């Protein structure tokens, strides 16, 4: 579904690169978590996948109909913005050129927020906002969902609901999910594969192998994982 | 009685048009926290007026063209000085006010540019009215046509990009819309307090804490109240309408804030 070939990137187009010689193959229905320390290039990789940035070297080939993007809830700090849930959903539907209005209710039902149409976005809790952003991303039935730290600013109970929902989307609906994550518990519970970025390099590894290695290294007093 | 004068009839028609146009543009400026861009462009329009008068052309058209260029310049510089929006405004303000002062002090203007600073009821001609009518109708139609794009660029620019919106193009179009609202308003409101027409009715409507469409409708309502009250009072008090409109806009905003405070304290009891 997504093939990344020898991807290098820097903002000025010259070395040193922020991302170096990345190769990645993602299949339909996989749940990939991108992890790494601050400054490791997670957000840059996500922006490249979203098409906001162009690779300096190499290529990203995507075979999908539409991308659904769920930004970080903290990016919606303007709680004074006068917009209702319905308006946020309906305008996005219009931008996606979806004619059927039913898609709004259907998407809100999927995240259990169908009763919040008239609420102001700024009045919602962190978890509720995140669910609405997921519902918005689900409009137009995208094959691929890209999420930026979905648990940031969200209470524990809502985190559970959100991750259960994301897992259902991969197992029952075959959606592919790529999540930039800092929440290791969520990474271990949900991901099929993990992409660990370190100093701009990284590779995809099986989630179970990664966890075993992580636990082994923890017991040995090391914080890092090398697979 | 005052309605029997043709200059007053012209002023009322123009006021009504700009009372609808300004909040339609202003609401997007305010929610994007770009109110100061409106203020900068309204000052920039003075250069367009003075250049229009210098060339013997319609000063409103001059203001529209020059303010559009300044709006596009701000948009261009915004991509260049990414995190220094205030610096961009200083650059554009220096350029435009510099041009205005140079032209006005040259002694080559054969018309009174002062009426554009403070606004004037007497100076609205039929030609002005036609120009303002065309600018207003076209601008409101473009806002209706691009409503969802403008709303989403203001609310979540990245989501708009992913949905396929050509954000940069729409931003340039929006700059022209701002220029249009300013050019249409300078005759009545004047350059100095023009930004009050763009942002204060929206600020008052936002106090109601409703959705975007309701906020826009109330912005238009408040705008009509502000500008009509300013216009009628300025006739009886024989002062420039711009200053009174600005004072009434602030007063109405304060009234809305006080009512909101009283309501919320009553609800807490």
From TrEMBL, chain A:
It comes from the Bacteria. Residues 2-224 form the ABC transporter domain. Keywords: ATP-binding, Nucleotide-binding, Transport. InterPro entries: AAA+_ATPase, ABC_transporter-like_ATP-bd, Metal_Ion_Import_ABC, P-loop_NTPase. Signal peptide: none annotated. Pfam families: ABC_tran. One of its GO terms (molecular function) is ATP binding. Belongs to the ABC transporter superfamily. This is ABC transporter ATP-binding protein. It comes from Anaeromicropila herbilytica.
């Amino acid at each position: 579904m997504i093939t990344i070939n020898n991807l290098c990137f820097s903002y000025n187009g010259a070395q040193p690169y922020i991302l170096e010689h990345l190769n990645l193959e993602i299949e339909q229905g996989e749940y990939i978590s991108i992890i790494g320390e601050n400054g490791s290039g997670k957000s840059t990789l996500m922006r490249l996948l979203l098409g906001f940035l162009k690779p300096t070297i190499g290529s990203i080939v995507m075979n999908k109909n539409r991308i659904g993007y769920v930004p970080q809830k903290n990016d919606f700090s303007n709680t004074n913005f006068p917009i209702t849930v319905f308006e946020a959903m309906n305008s996005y539907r219009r931008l996606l050129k979806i004619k059927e209005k039913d898609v709004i209710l259907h998407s809100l039902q999927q995240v259990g927020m169908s009763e919040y149409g008239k609420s102001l976005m700024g009045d919602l809790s962190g978890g509720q906002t995140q669910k609405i952003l997921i519902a918005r991303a689900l409009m137009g039935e995208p094959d691929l969902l890209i999420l930026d730290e979905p648990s940031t600013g969200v209470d524990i109970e809502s985190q559970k609901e959100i991750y259960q929902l994301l897992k259902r989307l991969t197992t029952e609906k075959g959606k592919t999910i790529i999540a930039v994550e800092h929440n290791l518990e969520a990474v271990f519970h949900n991901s099929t594969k993990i992409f660990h970025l370190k100093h701009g390099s990284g590779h995809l590894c099986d989630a179970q192998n990664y966890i075993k290695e992580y636990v082994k290294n923890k017991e040995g007093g090391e914080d890092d994982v090398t697979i | 009685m005052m309605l029997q004068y043709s200059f007053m009839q012209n002023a009322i028609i123009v006021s009504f048009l700009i009372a609808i146009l300004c909040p339609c543009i202003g609401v997007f400026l305010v929610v994007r926290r770009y109110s100061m861009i409106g203020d900068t462009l309204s000052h920039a329009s003075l250069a367009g007026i003075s250049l229009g008068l210098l060339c013997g052309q319609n000063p409103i058209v001059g203001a529209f063209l020059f303010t559009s260029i300044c709006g596009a310049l701000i948009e261009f510089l915004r991509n260049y000085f990414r995190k220094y929006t205030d610096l961009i405004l200083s650059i554009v303000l220096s350029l435009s006010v510099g041009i205005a002062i140079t032209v006005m002090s040259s002694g080559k203007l054969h018309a009174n540019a002062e009426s554009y600073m403070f606004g004037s009821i007497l100076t609205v001609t039929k030609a002005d009215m036609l120009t303002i009518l065309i600018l207003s109708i076209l601008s409101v139609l473009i806002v209706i046509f691009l409503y969802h794009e403008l709303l989403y660029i203001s609310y979540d620019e990245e989501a708009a990009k992913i949905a396929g919106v050509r954000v940069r193009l729409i931003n340039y179009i929006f700059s022209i819309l701002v220029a249009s609202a300013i050019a249409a308003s300078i005759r009545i409101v004047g350059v100095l307090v023009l930004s009050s027409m763009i942002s204060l009715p929206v600020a008052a409507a936002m106090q109601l804490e409703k959705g975007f469409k309701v906020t826009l409708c109330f912005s238009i309502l408040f705008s009509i109240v502000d500008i009509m009250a300013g216009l009628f009072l300025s006739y009886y008090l024989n002062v420039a309408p711009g200053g009174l409109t600005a004072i009434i806009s602030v007063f109405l905003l304060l009234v809305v804030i006080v009512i909101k405070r009283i309501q919320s304290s009553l609800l807490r009891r």
